[in-house]
């Protein structure tokens, strides 16, 4: 298949405006651009990606009805996705109609690829008789768990079980009730409405998944058996083509120089919140003393505004900086993939967002798992219990944190997890290489798009 032929084919990509969704969608853009497609990113003005970081793409900003009020937006993804879906539809439709008129000038729109939450984009594509494909940015296991929520609700099991229960969920082994992927901000009923929309019958003709057979073969096979449309598991997307940063916050690269000075595998990288979660003052205090008391070197990302009641690190406890001295480095936002690839990093304390989980495994870095909400809980269970490349941190208490860091960085147990993580890394590298499952799946996806 000639590259020339694809050059005149444009793909319109529609990310959901959160870091954990934007990253894989822009990585997908890079992967497909490297296969010869032209790429347009249709995005909300809120959390807009920086076009300068992606000179090969065209960008279409869409008025979203949210941009005026950042505070509210960050927290409630369910409510926000409703507002975005209501507000972006019209401008997206006008934009696509215009592109279709220009088709006579030699460029065709092959299809629209939208985040699973951006329903409006799928609707508009179908209205205009354009092929539509969904991108799922969570693990396949999360999809099972979320579909399972609807059954559990109908069977009354959600009602009868404490959301913190350690009991196994029927038919969702190995998940416990406390691993179920609920959000914190919306009511259960509102969340289930979205879940049934996301996983119900969709009009799209395929699903792209940022996961790999190397990690989730059996879940993917089951999903494919139940699916009416082809599934293309082509992840981890960040490994499939080198892509530019799509960070919404400026990365502080000085931490790489600090890492250069640390001994091999000695540092715990702490990014325990990702782009959305937050901490109370008490939790940040416990975290700070847990890290200090572990006496291990740490690189800690504290996102601006993520500690309640402060702009950044004003609420760190008195005496903490003196106690840690040069052993600690704190940044607002890190170049995470480079940090995880750095030889000084011996472990990653993570909230287990799916991108962070994939990035850690891709570098063979073992984890401390402390999920905050949603799919992070499912991912944490898989990392610690199924893949056995991480340990679970039950509570944000300084003694527990100290113990977890020392277990991971110093003890044999941590060494075994590192070995396990290295094996998983090799497995997913093999799936991304020529002849591997993600590589083959990507070729099939390209052929599929070419067949439209
Ligand atoms: N990230 C980053 N620098 C940081 C913290 C996070 O670049 O200091 C990136 C990380 O590499 C990942 C994304 O932000 O790609 C977070 O996505 P994830 O799915 O892990 O979590 P979410 O933010 O959606 O909870």
From TrEMBL:
Repeat as UniProt keyword: no
Keywords: Glycosyltransferase, Transferase
Keyword Membrane applies: no
Top-level taxon of origin: Eukaryota
UniProt-listed InterPro entries: UDP_glucos_trans
Any one GO molecular function term: quercetin 3-O-glucosyltransferase activity
Signal peptide coordinates: none
Protein name, UniProt field: Uncharacterized protein
Organism the protein comes from: Ficus carica (Common fig)
Lineage of producing organism: Eukaryota, Viridiplantae, Streptophyta, Embryophyta, Tracheophyta
């Amino acid at each position: 298949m000639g590259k020339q032929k694809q050059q005149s084919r444009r793909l319109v990509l529609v990310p959901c405006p959160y870091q954990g969704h934007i990253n894989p969608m822009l990585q997908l853009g890079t992967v497909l651009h490297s296969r010869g497609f032209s790429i347009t990113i249709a995005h909300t003005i809120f959390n807009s990606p920086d076009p300068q970081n992606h000179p090969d793409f065209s960008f279409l900003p869409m008025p979203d009805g949210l941009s005026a009020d950042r505070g509210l937006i960050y927290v409630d993804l369910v409510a926000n996705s409703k507002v975005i879906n209501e507000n972006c539809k019209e401008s997206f439709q006008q934009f696509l109609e215009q592109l279709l008129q220009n088709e006579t000038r030699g460029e065709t729109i092959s299809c629209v690829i939208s985040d699973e939450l951006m329903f409006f984009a799928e609707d508009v594509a179908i209205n205009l008789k354009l092929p539509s494909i969904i991108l799922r940015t969570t693990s396949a296991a999360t999809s099972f768990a979320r579909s399972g929520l609807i059954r559990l609700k109908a069977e009354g099991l959600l009602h009868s079980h404490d959301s913190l229960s350690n009991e196994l969920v029927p038919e969702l082994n190995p998940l416990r009730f406390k691993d179920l992927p609920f959000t914190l901000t919306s009511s259960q009923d509102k969340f289930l409405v979205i879940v049934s929309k996301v996983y119900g019958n969709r009009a799209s003709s395929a699903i792209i998944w940022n996961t790999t057979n190397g990690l989730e073969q059996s879940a993917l096979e089951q999903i494919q058996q139940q699916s009416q449309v082809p599934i293309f598991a082509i992840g981890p997307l960040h490994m499939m083509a080198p892509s530019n940063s799509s960070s919404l916050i400026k990365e502080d690269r000085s931490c790489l120089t600090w890492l250069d000075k640390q001994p091999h595998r000695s540092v715990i990288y702490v990014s325990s919140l990702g782009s959305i979660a937050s901490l109370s003052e008490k939790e940040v205090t416990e975290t700070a003393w847990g890290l200090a008391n572990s006496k291990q070197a740490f690189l800690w990302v504290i996102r601006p505004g993520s500690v309640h009641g402060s702009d950044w690190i004003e609420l760190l406890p008195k005496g903490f900086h003196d106690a840690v001295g040069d052993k600690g480095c704190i940044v607002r936002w890190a170049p995470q993939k480079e940090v995880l690839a750095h030889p000084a990093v011996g472990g990653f304390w993570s909230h287990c967002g799916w991108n962070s989980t994939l990035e850690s495994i891709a570098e063979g870095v073992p984890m401390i798992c402390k999920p905050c909400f949603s799919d992070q809980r499912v991912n944490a269970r898989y990392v610690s219990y199924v893949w056995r490349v991480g340990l679970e941190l039950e509570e944000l208490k300084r003694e527990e944190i100290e113990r977890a860091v020392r277990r991971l960085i110093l003890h044999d147990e941590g060494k075994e997890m590192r070995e396990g993580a290295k094996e998983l890394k090799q497995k997913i590298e093999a799936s991304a290489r020529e002849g591997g499952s993600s590589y083959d799946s990507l070729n099939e996806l390209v052929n599929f798009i070419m067949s439209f």
